[in-house]
Amino acid sequence: MTQYKDNKMDGNLRIIPLGGCEEVGRNMTVFEYGQDIVILDMGLQFPEEDMPGIDYVIPNTEYLKGKEKNIRAVVFSHGHLDHIGAAPILLKKLGNPPIIGRPLTIEMVKHRQEDFERNSSKKLKTTYIKDLQQKINIGSFTLSFFQIDHTIMDAVGVILQTPVATAIHPGDWSIEKNPVNREAIKYSHLAELKRPTILMLESLGSTNFKKPVTEEEMLNNLYKLMSQAPGRTIIATFSSQIQRIKQILEFAAKTGRKVVLDGFSMKLNIEIATKLGYVKIPKGVIIAIDKARDYSDNKVIIVCTGAQGEEMAALSRIVAGNHKFIKLKKEDTVIFSSSVIPGNERTVQRLKDNLYRLSDNVYHSDIIDVHISGHSNIEGIKQMIGDIKADYFVPVYGNHYFLKESAKIAYDLGYSKDKVFVPDNGSIIKFTGMGAEILKEKAPSNYVFVDGLGVGDIGEIVLRDRQMLAEDGMFVIVAVIDRQTGKVKGSPDIISRGFVYLRESKDLLAQTRRKVIEIVNKTAGHGGAVNWIYVKDELRNKIGDFLHTKTERRPMVLPVVIEV
Amino acid sequence: MTQYKDNKMDGNLRIIPLGGCEEVGRNMTVFEYGQDIVILDMGLQFPEEDMPGIDYVIPNTEYLKGKEKNIRAVVFSHGHLDHIGAAPILLKKLGNPPIIGRPLTIEMVKHRQEDFERNSSKKLKTTYIKDLQQKINIGSFTLSFFQIDHTIMDAVGVILQTPVATAIHPGDWSIEKNPVNREAIKYSHLAELKRPTILMLESLGSTNFKKPVTEEEMLNNLYKLMSQAPGRTIIATFSSQIQRIKQILEFAAKTGRKVVLDGFSMKLNIEIATKLGYVKIPKGVIIAIDKARDYSDNKVIIVCTGAQGEEMAALSRIVAGNHKFIKLKKEDTVIFSSSVIPGNERTVQRLKDNLYRLSDNVYHSDIIDVHISGHSNIEGIKQMIGDIKADYFVPVYGNHYFLKESAKIAYDLGYSKDKVFVPDNGSIIKFTGMGAEILKEKAPSNYVFVDGLGVGDIGEIVLRDRQMLAEDGMFVIVAVIDRQTGKVKGSPDIISRGFVYLRESKDLLAQTRRKVIEIVNKTAGHGGAVNWIYVKDELRNKIGDFLHTKTERRPMVLPVVIEV
User: Fold this and answer.
1) Do A473 and B465 touch (CB under 8 A)?
2) Does the beta-carbon distance from B478 to A48 stay under 8 Å?
3) Do A471 and B53 touch (CB under 8 A)?
4) What residue ranges define each of the domains in chain B, with the CATH number in brackets?
5) Rounded to an integer, what distance in angstroms lies between the CA atom of residue B46 and that of residue B56?
6) With contact defined as beta carbons under 8 Å apart, do B216 and B180 qualify?
């Protein structure tokens, strides 16, 4: 493990984003003051295109090795997977430190924990933030919280006060100027916190000039589409959109409609929210999916998962015609009340294409505002910076270029360069009583891949092999060689997948077999001691070149030589 | 080959989009009147995520099998790859029919042809459209042309007049309301064509409400950024953006700057355009790349390829630090004068992240308008429909849902359902003197994959294998079996790639070897006749299950059994 010289009980605050500052997802930030560590969020990132087979990517926690006993608490800002998704793996790895969050968030962490290992959620040491005015003292930290807008219930901002500085971190946030049934949130009270203050601001919207859709506009559009729907209404949204589902249930109750919830995680989340008293399901509004046919089509609303084109989710099954109860009709209305997660663009486009074939009434954010973003635009970032007036500004949670653009906004508002830090994953920002700096040394931050049961066991080599296999397939040559003569016995076996269609390539295979025999007999058939490594290298290179000449493809060539 | 009953010399016009109506790319449309066939465009599509290793996808031309001699001409609307990219393969396949296009377009087709097969472009039978007023009579068709706006020089709209109907096809198009140094284009003269008329309209912008950036705004931004650049200006754009490069050259000449062109295809295109007289390079403005250091940085403009993050292109090499002559400096200005091609979102985002680390002045369309789109928005589609007043409306060239949304625009403007056809790839739309319909039968339109030298030889099976290999890798088991006893000799060989990191999985491999011996001895070691297919199946299934239990991954298991 790297030694961090500077890392003693020195009365400084160190802030280390272990993930989430070079990508969207796997958000996790370490706050370290002397021997006290508080962690914010443990998120996961969905794999990029060049990570085939990977389930997801989690933060690298090598920095915390040997310091597990110093971890006083893990705070979760909200229940989205890019903030809680890595919790089951990392909490276990870090010795099960206490966790803190709003009730819905903690319940969602618990459920994820159960999915990971049955009965393991009981071991979690939980502290519920029941009241936003609550203060929690742990070690040298005083934690407090503030209300923010985001697309999931119970999202909170976190304030971490230490003797030398106070960090303000809203987690993911947006600004709702026209909220339904409540006041708009103000942030100016955060300017009164103990100084120096550090604003750590999620900055995904730092290049977004667009005026945000208000909740009111979105709801009005949604209500209008549901009211005018000639047939059933199918609304695809995120399973964590509890607030939206609540609003749909209330609309249905008011207008004499029935609602079907379709999607395991969605039902589960509504169940949790109902238990917590966050949602009151109007009596008789929710019906079982097999009862939908008992009502006239225009009285039925189906809320389902699968807006990202997830293969096994309800919407995909409906579109593929595999859904047990729902066959789409031309006059059904389909609404995507969701955004497209980066990386899913083409999958979602294909899903929409298929939906447009089946239904004449497909609506999504490209054509009508039926969704609100969970992330603020430039205007909001300006407002936040202006209201909170922090001494330091640290843009976080987004690709590097979003953070740089967010920093530019701060410069425009008068911040000097020494008060703004744009961290990478693993950057260590040190705040003393006197000033602040980014240290030269960095915490390890390379990807930790999760694939099946393996956490961190897949490295660059395995990934590169997968990419190569995907590109041009593989070509295994099995040659049985007579130990006495060094010559090939019989005809070499060839096993190939993903390279050419074998049935239509008989000539190529016959030529390759002859070539194999030729190479082996030449390199090994001289009667003396044989260098088998050389024989294999020759096979790999020469057969590789031969296949490339014939096809301009480069399958992975794997020679197997068996002496008998 | 499917027989098309209806397909005689029957005096009807058939329009068959063979590609480009369910995706972006591989645009190709067949116009058939009696025994005369005219083809518009032969484009390629870049591969989707689930097409690993595929170079590109081209239209399926099975419909034309046996009719090659009827093909009177292939017209190319403009020189973008999604309109000419499949030409070398398809022209050869279809017996080298005559080709028609504007000079730049034909020259670009020729160059693509040369890349494909040296000296083959000489065989092309070319007709240059030198004058837009030109009319070309071929068979029952009269071809004429009209000016349109698009992001490549020499893009034209095509009119195909037959005795029963007149098709109007602008190819790809946009509407430039504020062109620099010329008049805005009008389309109302197309309302005067011989009726019935059919408007076939590229409809990529059918969900786009945004006000288009004008050429003037874009140029002003570009000029401003170049004028204010503290260091060198690096402009990344498409190699086919000849007009833009021309404007940059003129700006440089006027302001005493020097221009470096970096990118093989870009230089080639400028060379072609210069030969045609489309670009006049001001004397002394272009300098060799190794001479750039002789000028002060703020007098140097580098125009390069690679705005899509293409690995081998100039910009990628600059960012990776592999460029022989250009090392990026903090004060350099980098401008993306380009859009992001769908599917490249994440690659481009990564490129931008890396650029933002190296330069403090990165500009792209998210933050300032430095590019204009080649595709019209909704407003433009309305204007086009309104100006041309065609009898029939056929939205084309885009994903299905774009075509459906474009059709909705036509309905809103008063078209009745029987006058609008939304085709799929392979749809056959028949126009008689009396009316029009989409036939029930369809032309084959499934993907034709190009991979290396193979055209169409990669099918679903090979692709599925590649996907499987990419997902969890492969696992080859080689067991040598004693013919006498039916038992495994020695230790089975295991070759695995992309599954686990072998060095760290010794236990797993040892267990698997034992398991292999156990399965073989049980299924084959009974001394009687052995069913080797059964032995292999057992190995495949049981080892597959065993590995899945241990890892929750499913590599492709390939057993090789060798009797000795």
Assistant:
1) yes
2) no
3) yes
4) 2-209+373-455 (3.60.15.10), 215-363 (3.40.50.10710), 473-563 (3.10.20.580)
5) 5
6) yes
User: Which of A352, A402, A416 has the alpha carbon at shortest distance from A203?
Assistant: A402
- pLDDT of A337-383, one tens digit each? 998 888 888 899 999 999 999 999 999 999 999 999 999 999 999 99
Using pLDDT thresholds of 50, 70 and 90, give the confidence band for residue B529.
Answer: confident
Cross-chain residue pair A353–B560, CB shorter than 8 Å: no
What is the count of residue pairs from A and B with beta carbons less than 8 Å apart? 197
Reported as a single tens digit per residue, the pLDDT across B90-105 is: 999 999 999 999 999 9
Q: Give the containing element (helix H, strand E) for B42.
A: none
CB neighbourhood size of B562 (10 A): 19
Question: A556 - beta bridge partners?
Answer: A474
**Environment class of residue A382 by beta-carbon count within 10 Å: exposed (0-12), middle (13-18) or buried (19+)?**
middle
Please state whether the predicted TM-score (pTM) of the whole model is above 0.90.
yes
| Nearest beta carbon to residue B462 from set A349, A468, A498 | A498
How far from the centroid of its chain's Cα atoms is residue A533's Cα? 44
Strand order in the sheet with A56-58: A56-58, A448-451, A454-455
Best of A334, A462, A557 to mutate (most B CBs within 10 Å, chain B): A462
Helix, strand, or coil (residue B217): helix
CA-to-CA separations, A165 to A11, A31, A71, A75, A268, in angstroms, rounded? 10, 11, 19, 18, 40
Nearest CB to A346; choose among B48, B357, B459: B48
B334-to-A210, A408, B230, B305, B348 alpha-carbon distances in Å:
24, 16, 11, 12, 14
Asked if residue A90 lies in contact with residue A448, where contact means CB atoms within 8 angstroms, the answer is no
| Residue among A53, A355, A405 whose CB faces B472 most closely | A53
Cis peptide before A395 (omega within 30 of 0): no
B258 backbone dihedrals φ, ψ, rounded to 5°: -115, 150
Q: How many CA atoms lie within 13 A of A509 on its CB side?
A: 19
ipTM, two decimals: 0.90
